[in-house]
Amino acid sequence: MTAIALTIAGSDSGGGAGIQADLKTFSALGVYGASVITALTAQNTVRVEAVHVVPADFVLAQMRAVADDLQVDAIKIGMLATAPVIEAVAEGLKDYRGVPVVLDPVMIAASGDPLLDPGAVDALRRLIPLATLITPNLAEAAALLACSPAGNEYEMAMQAWQLKDAGAKAVLIKGGHGEGSTSIDILFAGVEPERLEAPRVATRNTHGTGCTLSSAIAAELAKGASLPDAVATAKDYVTAAIRNADMLDIGSGKGRGPVHHFHAWWKRKR
Predict the structure, then answer these.
(1) Catalytic option among 211, 212, 239, 257
(2) What does the pLDDT look like over 49-83, one tens digit per residue?
(3) Is 206 a catalytic residue?
(4) What are the angstrom distances between the C-alpha of 156 and each of 10, 33, 95, 137, 190?
């Protein structure tokens, strides 16, 4: 059977994040991608110019259309924009019982522009128990817990524990926005937190990193990997995509270019 992953997320007109990044990641990792679009963004590597939210009933219609015909093996959830859309997604997940769900609680774009209504954070918190894994970055974990961002690995582990206590089955707190020569993520999927480390790559081209990581985890879960193996494989893939991001020449150079999803297939620049 062909492994199928479904992304429920917003569209990035610049192609570096959101639905576009998710589908590129699924394809790069050998998984068929289906999609439910929650919002349209007028976006490039520099900024988000505008956001058009898809009506909640149409988001639900997309989810049900996919469920009626495709045997989905894993789901990635990204930008949800508003409380009504979040509630529609929660309703739609009833048609996907038993399917692993990776929730990336997208709140802010790499450019710093908001992608979630401030009043929708409570609704997003209620979605957490429906996910197999949530993948907040430092700022998103702090927003979900209504506290300050973690400043070290101990605080990251404590926040991961708090999110598990709030109903998350497993938590991956991403340290990509931290400092230091290595990027440290904390995975709390069992009794003890696990430390995942990768060299920090010196590049501005990191647009879509969070979307790519969560969709890579979903792709590996769709292929039958265990959660720890899926996270480890996905982190290796994203690290390579960042390391090769400068092979691409996308945008004016004033913003953050995309990571290279197809680094293993495209020819290197001379």
Answers:
(1) 211
(2) 999 999 999 999 999 999 999 999 999 999 999 99
(3) yes
(4) 27, 32, 34, 10, 15
CA angle 180/169/197 to nearest 5° reads 20
- Asked if 254 is an active-site residue, the reply is no
DSSP 79-147: --BSHHHHHHHHHHGGGGTT--EEE----B-TTS-B-B-GGGHHHHHHHGGG-SEE--BHHHHHHHHTS
Indicate whether this model's pTM tops 0.85.
yes
Selecting among 14, 174, 176, 239, the annotated active-site residue is 174
pLDDT band per the 50, 70, 90 thresholds, residue 200:
confident
Q: Are 206 and 239 in contact (CB under 8 A)?
A: no
* Closest to 73 measured CA to CA, from 237, 229, 217: 217
Separation of alpha carbons 17 and 106, rounded Å: 11
Q: What is the pLDDT of residues 221-262, one digit of tens each?
A: 999 999 999 999 999 999 999 999 999 999 998 999 999 999
Distance, CA of 58 to CA of 36 (rounded, Å): 9
Confidence band, pLDDT 50/70/90 cuts, at residue 178: low
Please give the distance of CA 155 from its chain centroid, rounded to a whole number.
22
| 210 given a catalytic annotation | yes
- Residue 188, φ and ψ in degrees, nearest 5: -120, 95
Which of 44, 14, 32, 2 shows the shortest CA–CA distance to 215?
A: 32
Separation in Å, CA 33 to CA 8, 30, 36, 40, 217:
11, 9, 10, 18, 13
> How far is it, in rounded angstroms, from Cα 136 to Cα 125?
12
pLDDT tens per residue across span 130-160: 999 999 999 999 999 999 999 999 999 999 9
